[in-house]
Every structure is written in C-alpha cells, then in structure tokens.
Description:
Layout: H1 56-72, E1 85-87, E2 92-97, H2 100-105, E3 110-116, H3 121-126, E4 132-138, E5 144-151, H4 154-166, H5 171-175, H6 186-193
Antiparallel strand pairs: 1-2, 2-5, 3-4, 4-5
Amino acid sequence: KLLVAAGRKANTSALDAGKAGIKLLKNGGIEIxxxxxxxxxxxxxxxxxxxxxxxxYMAAYGGKLAAKNALESNKHAYSNAAMPAVVFSDPQTAMVxxxxxxxxxxxxxxxTSIITLDHVPRYIAARDTRGLIKLVADKKTDRxxxxxxxxxxxxxxxxxxxxxxxxxxxxxxxxxxIFPYLTGVEGLKLAAQTFNKDVKKLSCCAG
Length: 207
C-alpha cells in the first residue's frame, strides 16, 4: 500500500488579490497578522484561504476572531499553541503542542517520555495494543510542551492534553492527577509517570 500526502493549497488564484493590496504567501495563502488582518487593513481572512492550520475548527475560531477584530479594532489575537490535530487513521494519530524538535528549536531543554500501549490496561483488556503515547516537557521547569498519541481513540485522549497545556501543567501534576482506571486517557497519567518511574513495575492504579 502506498500513501501519498500532497498537502493542500489555498484557493486564491481567482481573487486577483494584488489589486486589493493583499499580499499572498508562497503557498498561495493570504498573509495575515495575529489579528487575522491582511496587508489591506480593511480586509480580514480566516480558514484555509490563509494557508495555515487547515482544520474546520480552526477556521471557525479564526472566523470568529476576524469578525470581532474588524468591529473592535484588533483586540483578539489568534493562538494555535494548544491546537489539537487528529488524523483518523487506524489507530488514530493525535497531537497537540510542540514536537521534540520544535521544542529544541525554541530553546527548551527538552525531556520526553514514551509509553507503548501494551502498558496501558485499557488496551491490554481490549486486546489492541497498537500505538504509543509520547509527552514532551521542559527539563528545567517540568512544564508540559506537547503530546503525540497513536491509539484507537487518540482523538478523544488528546483533548485532555489540550487542557493540560492551557493550564501550564507540569509532568508531576499530570502524573498526580486521578484518572479513571481502564480508560484510554489513563495512558496520559502513565506516560507522565514514565518520566520518573518504570510503570511496568507498578501495580494497578499505582500513584
């Protein structure tokens, strides 16, 4: 089997953007600032036409900000720092925050943990242990920076990490959070514990 991922391109070729004083990016997207404002201060843009964060929920988020900023003189900045992304493969691939490489590029002293699903009770019980959970954190502050999940229900699990990143949680705080036993999301707790413990040696629900 061969998978070809060619990506997407903003459909702006027929807009004649130059006549409106709108600058375009190399990928054809409309260049905008953090307030969704184009190079023409009277024109705002959101969604796939900007050539970035091509997810329907980010388009809705950007559209809301664009409308508010057009009416309220740029008071609402766009942020994708805690943007979840899901690929509905089998198992699902989900991610939020920084990758290990991105974190290093941004100057973080990085630490990571990886736990395979054969150490998460839910997936052992379901007899489907394909996948893993990887957490990225700052070694000095212990603050969580990102998560990458390959699991049958990865798209559901990732939202917990969205909240963890928005709350600036540390790996220790996540590891000490109570999660219900025999759930996929419990894998996040185990992944956080993996920074300092060998979870293979822990008994059921051990803290």
